Amino acid sequence: MKIILSLLTFVIGVVLSVHLSMNSQVGEILKNPRMGNAFFWTIGAVTAIIIGVTSSDATAVFSRIKEVPVWLWTAGALGAALVFGIAWLIPQLGAGATFIIMIAGQVIAGMVLSHYGVLGSALEPINLMKMFGALLLIAGATIVTFN
Fold first, then answer.
1. Is residue 106 within 8 Å of residue 98, measured between CB atoms?
2. Are 81 and 23 in contact (CB under 8 A)?
């Protein structure tokens, strides 16, 4: 099962890279990456609402909204800012460098989140092998970016 989930995660990474590059291209064509990002998020919000309301327990969600801590709602704004930043960085650094550096940051942050079980992450202690893997990732990101 872990192999299937890993493959699905890989595919999501591919789609995310294409999606963010598309967002960047819209910003370049419009000569305004902020508006390109705004249009993407508007379309994304409508899509998310459609997907959400078609779920089997959509009405029960509204009764539980008040249980969500206020600070967690900032994830939407954070996501919009991240996508804007990435869409702006791709023309500056190139898609390859942008994504490899971003992946390095994600892996290292993910290791720390999992080590402490932050935000519901499964506990996975950092060990020497994982630290070695992270160092290899940083080395690879450096080679890809600055070579």
1. no
2. no
